[in-house]
């Protein structure tokens, strides 16, 4: 097998010298163990800021096939969602917990008709994140307006599609007109703002003249401060992530938003998907029919080849992905 290890801590935007591919011998299985081979590897923003030691495998989750097994609980030929990092092969035992504090999840047979690739995206962590942030925190009502940042990305595009199904007015903030046209014309968003070219406060005022009821925050920083200034009374903010500052060398000096939060009695709640592990299977059950009916489109940007995982990771941080950034082995 092969794995990516951290050889130099990230500082600023990731560079090739930060990681190295290392060969690894896969030992014979002991009783209770099973061997997984990665089929799709996820590259994600949090990998940039996750605490990792030198020599450690880069953290990450994947869809993997069980190719050898000494436990009836995890039979050969089945798929799991693993959380074992950027590796081609991994041995788990029945009770393993990974670096992300999550148990490997055996994909239930009832989803055999859904592409296994989707368990990296709409049926996996991005879908769960979109669902938790939108329904448990924002609690959308028909006719309300939601703004989503990083709206053409893995989580953001799904939040928008789910909010459209709920009858909301959905606006996305994106880094290019190409992405904006995609979320509008293909996914049915009501509008978009290109934060690199446009004037966010002015355009948002035009698109949401009555204000923003919900904000799904993927980016933090200045973009979020500008959106939060235009929220309605009792607005809700789901804080999913803050990618705009992940590559900063110093702590960012984003303007403070506390006054805006107090002024309108807003509710701003962060969430971590590992805390919802017990609900994964229930939420998958809720999402699956929309995936089968094609109401939720599962878009992905796929890079082929394990050795190109790091390139795919950097491309995602630069915003080159539409939908979920995935590496196919
Ligand atoms: P995406 O697929 O959205 O990829 C990242 C996107 O971020 C890029 O495509 C880019 O799009 C945008 N971006 C990059 N740099 C900046 C910047 N400086 N300012 C604004 N946007 C930027 O990733 P995910 O959907 O996987 O993740 C989105 C967010 O959700 C991240 O913050 C991540 O950490 C978080 N997350 C949190 C989870 C949780 O448990 N809370 C679980 C999963 C994700 P563009 O071209 O539009 O700039």
CATH class of the largest domain, named Alpha Beta
Shape: globular
Relative helix content: 10-25%
Order of helices and strands: EEEEEEEHEHEHEHEHEHEHEHE
Summed up, the domain count is: 2
Distance between the termini: 12 Å
Total strands: the figure is 15
Q: Main β-sheet: number of strands, strand sense, barrel status?
A: 7 strands, mixed
Low-confidence stretches: none
Q: How much strand?
A: 25-35%
Which key terms come to mind for this protein?
329 residues, alpha/beta, Quinone Oxidoreductase, Chain A, domain 1, Rossmann fold, 2 domains, seven-stranded mixed sheet, six-stranded parallel sheet, 8 helices, 15 strands, globular, binds NADPH dihydro-nicotinamide-adenine-dinucleotide phosphate
Structure description:
The chain is α/β, with parallel strands linked by helices and 329 residues long. The chain has two domains: 2-121 and 298-328, Medium-chain alcohol dehydrogenases, catalytic domain (Quinone Oxidoreductase, Chain A, domain 1, Alpha-Beta Complex); 125-273, Rossmann fold, CATH 3.40.50.720. The chain has eight helices and 15 strands. It has helices at residues 125-138, 154-165, 177-186, 200-207, 221-228, 258-263, 280-292, 309-317, and strands at residues 2-6, 19-23, 33-42, 62-69, 79-82, 89-93, 105-106, 145-149, 169-174, 191-194, 212-217, 231-239, 267-270, 300-304, 324-328. Strands 3, 4, 5, 6, 7, 14 and 15 form a seven-stranded mixed beta sheet that branches. Helix 1 crosses helix 2 (154-165). The longest helix is centred in the middle third of the chain and has 14 residues, at 125-138. The mean pLDDT is 96. NADPH dihydro-nicotinamide-adenine-dinucleotide phosphate binds at residues 44-46, 125-126, 129, 150, 152-156, 174-176, 179, 218-219, 223, 240-244, 271-273, 316-317, 319, 321, 325.
